[in-house]
């Protein structure tokens, strides 16, 4: 199961979807519908790393550099 970032071309909403490679490659478009406006006109987005981190809070250890804490790096 991977997380993919998709962008809705209709309302510009960016959202994350958890799906298997088979679902993605197989074009199971039902899963890749915009949760905001329910449009199927979505496209995979490759450059929204920070956004996804906010949506899916996982057990991501590290991320903030240890020791050099100037604050703010965790947003
Ligand atoms: Zn939308």
Notes on the structure:
The protein has about 80 residues and is an alpha+beta fold. It has a single domain (about 1-55), classed as Rubrerythrin, domain 2, CATH 2.20.28. It is built from 2 helices and 3 strands, in the order E-E-H-E-H. It has helices at about 20-25, 50-55; strands at about 1-10, 15-20, 40-45. It has a 3-stranded antiparallel β-sheet. A hairpin with a 5-residue loop joins strand 1 and strand 2. The longest helix has 7 residues, at about 50-55. It is globular. The relative contact order is 0.22. Zinc ion (ZN) binds near residues 34 and 36.
Write the layout of secondary structure elements.
Blueprint: E1 2-8, E2 14-19, H1 21-25, E3 42-44, H2 49-55
Antiparallel strand pairs: 1-2, 1-3
Bound molecules: zinc ion (ZN).
State the CATH class: Mainly Beta
Strand order of the main beta sheet, please?
Answer: 2-1-3
Provide a count of the helices. Answer: 2
Q: Any guess at the CATH architecture?
A: Single Sheet
Major sheet size, sense and barrel closure: 3 strands, antiparallel
Ranges with pLDDT <50 over ≥5 residues?
none
Considering the chains and any ligands shown, give keywords for the structure.
75 residues, alpha+beta, 2 helices, binds zinc ion
């Amino acid at each position: 199961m991977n997380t993919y970032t998709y962008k809705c071309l209709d309302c510009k909403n960016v959202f994350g979807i958890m799906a298997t490679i088979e679902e993605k490659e197989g074009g199971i478009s039902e899963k890749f519908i915009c949760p905001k406006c329910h449009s199927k006109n979505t496209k995979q987005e490759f450059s929204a790393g920070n956004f996804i981190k906010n949506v899916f809070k996982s057990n991501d250890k590290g991320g903030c550099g240890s020791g050099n804490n100037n604050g703010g790096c965790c947003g």
